[in-house]
Amino acid sequence: MQNTVRHIRKSLGGIYPPEEINSFIRIIFEKVCHFSSADFILCKNTILSSTRQQEIAAIVQRLQKYEPLQYITGETWFCGLRFKTAPGALIPRPETEELADLIIRRHRGGSGRLADIGTGSGCIAVTLARQLPGFRTEGWDISPDALDIATGNAAALQAHVTFRQADILSWEPAPDECGAYDIWVSNPPYVRESEKKEMRPNVLDYEPHTALFVPDDDPLLFYRKIAQTALRTLRPGGALYFEINAALGGETQKLITDIGYRQVELLRDMQQRDRIIAARHP
Question: Which partner from 13, 99, 252, 265 sits 20 to 30 angstroms from 42, CA to CA?
Answer without folding.
Answer: 13
